[in-house]
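Hi R.,

As promised on Friday, here is the backbone we talked about, encoded as structure tokens. Could you run it through your design pipeline when you get a chance and send me back a sequence?
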């Protein structure tokens, strides 16, 4: 599970917000992912939702990009600020805490590998 990952505790530390992600896939349509606030240093399990349901939840932070751009962001091949400026990543909310956690890219990469199968 996600919390068994060695980077999970560090990623959860100081994270006090919920987050919504939309992955625009070439096949299978858009995938909405809701990630609630950590509790007791544990990352909550992600919830896979329709984009409409994710919007109804109104997460404090929201980001949307194509599947290819998400992978580039995670791999470090695409700078998050450049992606926002180029409108390849649509973001709402103060993403400073998210960008500050870029050292946990490995956790996100391992987690996103599992999403590829959804």
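Update: got your reply. Pasting your designed sequence below so it's all in one thread:
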């Amino acid at each position: 599970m996600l919390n068994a990952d060695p980077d999970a505790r560090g990623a959860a530390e100081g994270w006090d917000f919920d987050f919504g992600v939309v992955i625009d896939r070439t096949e299978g349509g858009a995938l909405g992912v809701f990630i609630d606030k950590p509790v007791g240093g544990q990352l909550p399990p992600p919830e896979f939702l329709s984009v409409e349901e994710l919007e109804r939840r109104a997460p404090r932070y929201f980001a949307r990009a194509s599947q290819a751009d998400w992978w580039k962001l995670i791999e470090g091949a695409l700078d998050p600020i450049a992606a926002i400026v180029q409108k390849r990543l649509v973001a709402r909310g103060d993403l400073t805490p998210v960008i500050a956690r870029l050292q946990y890219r490995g956790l996100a990469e391992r987690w996103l590998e599992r999403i590829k199968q959804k």
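One thing I noticed while checking it: The first strand starts at residue 19 and ends at 24.

Thanks again,
M.
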